[in-house]
Amino acid sequence: xxxxxKEDELTAERRTPEAVPAPAGPPPELARVLAAxxxxxxxMVSRALIKQRTGVRQIHGDWIGDIVNxxxxxxxxxxxxxxxxxxxxxxxxxxxxxxxxxxxxxQDKYGIEVSTSKGVQAVKDHYDKAPxxxxxxxxxxTWLFAELVALERALAHFAPILGxxxxxxxxxxxxxxxxxxSKVDQSITKNTATGALDDATLGEFFRDSKNFALFTPGExxxxxxxxxxxxxxxxxxxxxxxxxxxxxxEGDFMKETGYWTDRATKSGTAGAEAPPxxxxxxxxxxxxxxxxxxxxxxxxxxxxxxxxxxxxxPGNPCPxxxxxxxxxxxxxxLPVGDFPTPNKDxxxx
Amino acid sequence: xxxxxxxxxxxxxDEVLSRAxxxxxxxxxxxxxxxPVARVRAASLWPGFFYxxxxxxxxxxxxxxxxxxxxxxxAALGPGAHELRSRAGKRAVLYVWPERGVAFSEEDGAVDFLxxxxxxxxxxxxxxxxxxxxxxxx
Lengths: 349, 138
Ligand SMILES: [Zn+2]
Fold this sequence. Notes:
The structure holds two protein chains of two kinds. By secondary structure, chain A is an alpha/beta fold. Chain A contains 13 helices and nine strands. Chain A has helices at residues 3-15, 28-38, 43-61, 63-74, 93-110, 116-126, 132-136, 145-157, 229-245, 250-257, 284-297, 299-304, 319-330, and strands spanning 79-83, 86-90, 113-114, 143-144, 180-184, 203-206, 211-215, 260-262, 265-266. In chain A, the strands form three sheets. Chain A has a four-stranded mixed sheet with strand order 3-5-7-6, sandwiched between helices. In chain A, strands 1-2-4 form a three-stranded mixed sheet. The longest helix of chain A is centred in the first third of the chain and has 19 residues, at 43-61. An eight-stranded antiparallel sheet of chain B has the order 1-2-3-4-8-7-6-5. Chain B has one domain. By secondary structure, chain B is of the alpha+beta class. Chain B has helices at residues 2-9, 13-19, 70-77, 122-129; strands at residues 24-31, 34-41, 49-53, 56-63, 82-85, 93-97, 102-107, 110-116. Classes of the chains: A alpha/beta, B alpha+beta. The complex binds zinc ion. The site of zinc ion (ZN) has 4 residues of chain A, from helix 9 and helix 11.
């Protein structure tokens, strides 16, 4: 079985949990969550999952939750494993062991701690003007196994400038911009007195905390890769990582593409190659993160565009951006045979 | 910086070009919804860009101005700011004083960019100048 097929199977299993066996029976909160999970796969359900999240945490945090999870594990059903400080939804002991391996490897190889509490704190710190009662509601969330797989795949693209390998790379002179990754339930909509819990944000980078977080709405998103949530998870994660690790290249990126006069303003210059997506049209940072996302996860999409956008409009073919990123990544200077080549669109497994 | 901007706000294109021999002009560009306009960089006068519709100045812009404290800027502009979504980022806020002809984007205690324009109404600013960047989700 290919890795991809295995992931699909695991995802399918996760989405079709059976009822907790009698006589214990699931607590009402758990039953509602399980019912919601059966239909997971769209934004509406994602929002419903968020609304149930408090109940999930309460269940996981007490003895009833422990009993339920043990019962589910012994019955061969999906369950929530505790790995260090993290909660991870898995379908088997083997998957639990693999999740533990991923978390350890990410720390050992890339110098990135998988720590949900750091993400919760990062959200609270960066939304300091949001209402206190909203900030207090920012909570950690359970990782999906597929998210950890995506996290490892995404970080592998940046391996030459992470962890101990950074000291033999072009980036040796700069501190690593990301040192932790988190799964948080929801972000906050804006950093003002009207900020509220955020039903839409998939991921977010927090520069001052050297952290990025994935959020619950990302569990079901396939916004760039319809029907392919695992690939979307990897892409979203690459996007967030790029906000940190690629920031140093932003100035040169703007110069070479000619689309921006500065980080926040489009040049309007005729003939300038536009970003690969409308989302990347917000500012140069989003443009660079979107471009990096496609460079690693779907390079043909970056080179050839979305198939409908005219030259100079978002979604157009981006050969300049592709060439720029090829050059930047090439300068990371790795030993031959260890180069982070882009994925092939047709060979994701 | 605000005083410097106010002093430059009314200058026509000819006046800027005559005062700044270092000026570089690009015609047929845009600034948000303002298009087509000419962009003039005249570093000896202003650390950003002037935008002109014909001879008329329609925007004075500075990106990431150094040593500008957003709190001091807001205090100088007084009450009455409107908050709009900023293109600079999810946590950035665009504060607009349309009647004063000033807007700036702030995030984490720094000014992302400053706009100075002819005093107007919020409706006019929103329709003629401002371009909503849309929701930030990642
Ligand atoms: Zn982003």
